[in-house]
Amino acid sequence: MTSQKPSIPPLPPNQTESKRGETVRLAKEGILITILASGGKLMGFLREWLVAFFFGAGIISDAYRVSVDFVRSITLTFAGQTVQMSLVPLLTRWRIRGALRSRALLFRLIGWLSLLTSLVLMLVLMLAGDAIARLQAPDYSPDDIELMSMMLRWIAPASLIFVAESMLTCLLMSVKRYRLIGYGTMVMNAFQIAAIVLIGLGHLPLQLIPISYWVSVVFVVGVLSIDAKTWWMHEQARVARHRTWVVMRRFSLLFAPLLIVGLSNQLRLFLDRRFVSEFAVGAIAALYFARFITETPKWTIGRTLTAMVLPHFSELAETKNDTDFRRHYLFLLDFSLWLMMPLVVICLTGAKSIVLLIYGYGAFDDHAVALTSAALMGAAPSIWTTVFHPVTNRVLIAQERSNMLLPFGISLAIMNILLAWQLAQHYGIVGVSVSLGVSQFILILSMLPFLKLQVGSAALGRILLWFGWAGALWLLMSGLPDTMTPLVHLLTIVGILLPAWIGASFLFPHGKENMRRLGSILLRVVKK
């Protein structure tokens, strides 16, 4: 006896047209964001290339990386990305429900609280720069510590401006206005590139490297304000005790677990830098140079996904559309695996050639190449996990189950720290860099049964299939002779990988559909 699936009645013509128009608009926005993010990433490569060219993998690069990463990551934890992931779902839901006064009140309250928090962080950085530098790299010389603490103090004002950027981004995301968000990275990188060139040539003092970073954020805020002023919340929201308690309680239920997870992630990043600082001066920069390469998909394709899926998932959860929710999640899983796994193989097998071609010039000596190549091999598996782990997190956030992220996030941080500590003793910088990808991979698999989307077995099969394919290709190409020039070596890898990828696309589930989607996207990009 065959079971029949219940038929779904068609939408009325006006609703069908509306949905089709919304889908087309979001697709165009997504393509534009990807283009802008790719352009920003190319400028980021130029920025990091200039740092490597002028300063190599030495104390200046280490100090620059510690100062920028520390202030940005800490600020974004307390008043940035954590706030976005908590605020955007509520702003989106209350927009759909028409609760405009509650929406406006929450936005203003969080803005002022975030500003106050970032002010405290700025003062801590300015007063405790020396102590932070010593904790980060205790084996460095006093002169090296002084340079690192100087950069921490000079970059401290950036924390205030990050709040404005974060709040404007939340506002634009909640109304599905993604376009100008994509210009931010390009604006920031343009300022930093100019500063690094002038400092590297000796025309400007060294402390202007961190200063150029927060000055560039001022212009990002200006760019976002162009569009945000149209969507500014003009509703009169009276700050009554009961109303304030209601909106802040809803926000806190989302924010509190995310804050704890964010803090545990910052501890993980801090200890990663701490572990590699024991190997050599410049190892912190080498780890960053390697992760900058592997995180390129995260800041291009992944940036588009994370910007758009949270309000979209929030709408699907609000309308109880579980069928589309499951289908869209599995589509993102399929497409990300199909697109990212070839890049994992390329970075695993051609790490040294990639580093030589990108960074191997000027002050970037053989020691820096060896450190960065080792870190790149270890970081290769995270090319996919850093893209898709945030997507999985946003399912729980959209379902207002962010409390579930607390045990998963803390487990990720603990697992990462323990793996990095253990593997560093045996494999050096490779062990530290591989720990993140391994931890995120295990966590993604662990989260699947808890998503309430019935995707566990389907998702697990896809993940294991593509990772098995990548592992087999890596073993096949690991025996390639190392006497080739870097360019010839990479071209050989691509020449073997490309037919294997095309063959897998026809043999694996949804492969031909993914190829069709990629062709459609590229065609739209050319037309734009």
The end-to-end distance, rounded to whole angstroms, is 51 Å
Question: Largest sheet, described in full?
Answer: none
C-alpha geometry: globular
The poorly predicted ranges are 1-17
In round numbers, the mean pLDDT is 81
Q: List the total number of helices.
A: 22
Give helix and strand order, one letter per element, not per position: HHHHHHHHHHHHHHHHHHHHHH
The radius of gyration over CA amounts to 23 Å
Helix content: over 70%
Q: How many E-type strands?
A: 0
Which structural class fits the helix and strand makeup? mainly alpha
| Beta-strand percentage range | under 5%
Jot down its keywords.
mainly alpha; disordered N terminus; 528 residues
Please tell me about this protein's structure.
The chain is mainly α and 528 residues long. It is built from 22 helices and no strands. It is globular, with a radius of gyration of 23 Å.
In short:
With 528 residues, this protein is an all-alpha fold.
